[in-house]
Amino acid sequence: MSEPPATRRWRPPFTVDLPTVLAPLRRGKGDPCLRQDESGRFWLAANTPTGAGTLMLRAGADGAVEARAWGGGAEPLLEGVPALLGADDDDSGFVAHHDAVAWARRRLPTLRLGATGRVWDVLIPAVLEQKVTGYEARRSWRELCRRFGEPAPGPAPAGMRVPPTPAAIRSIVDWNWHKAGVDHSRRSALIAAARVAHRLERAATLRGAEGRSLLRHVPGIGVWTAAEIAQRAWGDPDAVSFGDFHIPAIVGHALVGRALDDEGMHAVLAPYAPQRQRAVRYLEAAGYSRPRFGPRMPVRDYRAI
């Protein structure tokens, strides 16, 4: 007999758009840690200070959000529901300086930047996404979760897993990294982060540039990776993923009609500081994308090397 869930019913003072606010946490359709079932419920498997847990979220017709949670991490997950869904996000002072951003904001009035409040779970996939295609990174993420993450507690959809803990990451031997398609530089960064994982959680409390700076003390975590973590762990509105293969082109074509490099994107986004990432998020959520021409990153299989 399965354990009864811990429950919470939260009525936010704003309209919650679950698919949009949770989208940055989802690593592809086959993500083993975040799923949406046929009834529209969202399921999140996560590590917390009190253990692994599964969180189920469902939006009610009256605007309230029903949350249920299972496992040792149930209570922290329920406590974090408001922040996860953007309750701590503050867009006051944000001004759309370009027509594309203004249009996206009108189209997506419910967009908010959510925060998990925890670094480790979002750090792993961020490191895996360094300098490889999304396909490669998602494949490695699924493999690591399947082999080294425990099953999601409670009645989660089949196949859901909790991300590997720092101890699990430290236990992985070289040939299993190889099987998961993770090269030496990314596995080294993950192992280095796992050794100081408890200290890195402080970044979500420091927030902003100071939090990102703390993350960058780990060898192998640079500006791009720290920004990707910050966007999800504390909903950082200014953490732009400089060094990304796609984002400068998305921002450039949307705002000035041509592809940009990092320097050009920095200049174009400067008027949006300290909410530059919010402008980028509006463009991404509204469907702006990199033009479908030009060279593409090759898909590599490190398992065969």
The best one-word shape is globular
Radius of gyration: 19 Å
The biggest beta sheet reads: 5 strands, antiparallel
Number of strands: 5
Name of the level-1 CATH class of the domain at 6-94: Alpha Beta
Multimeric organization: single chain
Count of helical regions: 16
* CATH fold type of the domain at 6-94: TATA-Binding Protein
Strand content range? 5-15%
What class do helices, strands and sheet pairing give? alpha+beta
Q: What is the end-to-end distance?
A: 46 Å
pLDDT < 50 runs, ≥5 residues: none
Task: Specify the helix fraction band.
Answer: 40-55%
Can you offer a commentary on this structure?
Strand 4 (51-59) and strand 5 (65-71) form a beta hairpin. This protein has 305 residues and is α+β, with helices and mostly antiparallel strands. A five-stranded antiparallel β-sheet has the order 1-5-4-3-2. Helices cover 41% and strands 10% of the residues. It has a domain at 6-94: 2-Layer Sandwich (TATA-Binding Protein). It starts with 5 loop residues before the first strand and ends in a 20-residue tail after the last helix. Helix 5 packs antiparallel against helix 13 (223-233).
